[in-house]
Amino acid sequence: YFKAFTKQFTTGENYQAGADRELQTLRQMMIDFLQNHSQEVRPPACPPLEPVWSSDISSLFDKNSHHYTAIVFESNSSYVGREVILDLIQYENILVRRALNSDKAFLEKLGVSSVPSCYLVQPNGSHGLINNLKPLRSFFSSYLKSLPGVRKKLLLPLQLPAPESKEESPETKVWKEFDKSRLYMADLESGLHFLLRVELATHKTLEGAELKTFKDFVTISAKV
């Protein structure tokens, strides 16, 4: 695991996924890593994964907004809310938060009888529990992605820093025509690198005719 904004060189931190080696176990470990980043070095693209309080949720009601807000109510040990938050991170016009089922009176007031449940606040301020949904991450995420106006964010092109302005007007760089009759060192190095690091690595061992062929190749390469 590579932590965000690591100052010193690192080869990452190794973790064991547990004896069961299940995909879900690994996914939950990764979520824990993200959530345990301190606030100072939290990756900017990572949404807040901490639960919100009932007072925060109440402030969303009867307030017009330009986006939907979904709250996943769940138990403290559940990962469904955080999984749905991360599922919807690439979508716009929707904000997903999670809340714990510790405030029983508040849940009862909202009509949340079981967890995990998904509660939706619409842009016009109306709100209510999403009924007839199985309490699973896939059902919550699919439903929220299908809401009107919710769509995947467009990836903006990388903004490079503007070049420093010079007094003289920069000359237009003319592209050279590619000469197919010539052989370029970069292509030779790239091909040799691929052969030795990728293609050769597909063989666990070389013996007999294969080994002799490889030795001959290395000899010729060294000569030329």
Descriptive report:
GO terms for molecular function: flavin-dependent sulfhydryl oxidase activity; protein disulfide isomerase activity. This is QSOX2 oxidase. Residues 43-150 form the Sulfhydryl oxidase Trx-like domain. The chain has a domain at 49-152: 3-Layer(aba) Sandwich (Glutaredoxin), CATH 3.40.30.10. The model has no long low-confidence stretch (mean pLDDT 86). With 224 residues, it is an alpha+beta fold. The protein is elongated and about 85 Å long. Helix 3 runs parallel beside helix 5 (137-145). The longest helix has 15 residues, at 185-199. The protein is 32% helix and 12% strand. It has helices at 23-35, 54-58, 80-87, 104-110, 137-145, 185-199, 209-223, and strands at residues 68-74, 91-92, 94-100, 117-121, 127-129, 151-152. The two termini are 43 Å apart.
At a glance:
This protein has seven helices and six strands, in the order H-H-E-H-E-E-H-E-E-H-E-H-H. It has 224 residues and is an alpha+beta fold.
Write down the oligomeric state.
single chain
CATH architecture of the domain at 49-152: 3-Layer(aba) Sandwich
CATH superfamily of the domain at 49-152: Glutaredoxin
Ranges where pLDDT stays below 50 over 5 or more residues in a row are none
